[in-house]
Write a structure and sequence with these properties.
The structure is a single chain. This protein is α/β, with parallel strands linked by helices. About 30% of the residues lie in helices and about 25% in strands. Strands 1, 2, 3, 6, 7, 8, 9, 10 and 11 form a nine-stranded mixed β-sheet that branches. Strands 4-5 form a two-stranded antiparallel sheet. Strand 4 and strand 5 form a beta hairpin. The longest helix is centred in the middle third of the chain and has 12 residues. The two termini are about 25 Å apart.
Length: about 230
């Protein structure tokens, strides 16, 4: 029997996954969510047996999500990666876009101040990879060291005028008044299991939930999520 399972990640859908799992009452095992970013989730999974990671990490060299990181950060492990959903990430700007910010390159303008995200989050990795691809020195980004620890905080900083722009997912942009969203890239959000764990009924139950109609219905109800190929 597995001990308690910790599912790492910041997406609200993971609350749904945990509660659906806990409703099933599988032995004494409970599922909990730890709101850490993608990179830290994979690191914790490598260090701890009962951890499951979720991630949305863009690799600029291959222009793919997650698999390059999963294989590097969990070396020698036999793994199974299941697709959860696709979602847009893009620019949060003030309503009406008064500064006319349209592309990632606009972040290097002197009159534009950004709010960044914490190290280890999928968005921070995206920002740093975009800087690498576009040969932008991170030091030349105004506000690069102003860190918001969630999509919501980043969006709120823009709506309050503490920043002109931030990068985050579309869903959060709809939860904060006074900001517009400009899409940049559609990302893959995936969940990672160890193959040996999938032999255990607790982990099998998690996969069954991910592949269930009810879970897909819950995900579909969240605006800005594409659940084609979920599970």
């Amino acid at each position: 029997s597995a001990s308690n399972i910790v599912i790492c990640g910041q997406d609200l859908l993971l609350d749904v996954l945990c509660s659906m799992f806990n409703e099933r009452k599988i032995g004494k095992t409970r599922a909990y969510r730890s709101p850490m970013g993608s990179y830290n989730g994979l690191y914790e999974m490598y260090q701890n047996e009962n951890y499951v990671a979720t991630c949305h990490l863009w690799d600029s060299e291959t222009d793919t999500y997650n698999l390059p990181y999963v294989t590097r950060m969990l070396p020698g492990e036999r793994l199974a990666v299941f697709h959860l959903l696709k979602r847009w990430q893009g620019l949060y700007v003030k309503e009406g876009n008064p500064k006319e910010i349209h592309t990632f390159q606009d972040l290097i303008r002197d009159d534009v101040r950004m709010a960044n995200r914490e190290k280890g989050s999928g968005i921070r990795v995206f920002i740093d990879e975009m800087c690498k691809v576009n040969e932008i020195e991170t030091m030349s980004l105004n506000g690069y060291h102003d860190v918001a620890s969630s999509h919501l905080i980043a969006a709120t900083m823009v709506s309050r005028g503490n920043a002109d722009v931030a990068i985050g997912n579309e869903k959060t942009s709809r939860q904060v008044e006074g900001i517009d969203f400009i899409p940049l890239k559609q990302e893959n959000y995936d969940i990672v299991f160890r193959l040996e764990d999938l032999k255990k009924k607790e982990y099998q139950a998690l996969v069954e939930i991910i592949q269930s109609k009810e879970f897909r219905k819950e995900a579909k109800a969240i605006e800005g999520y594409d659940v084609a190929g979920m599970g």
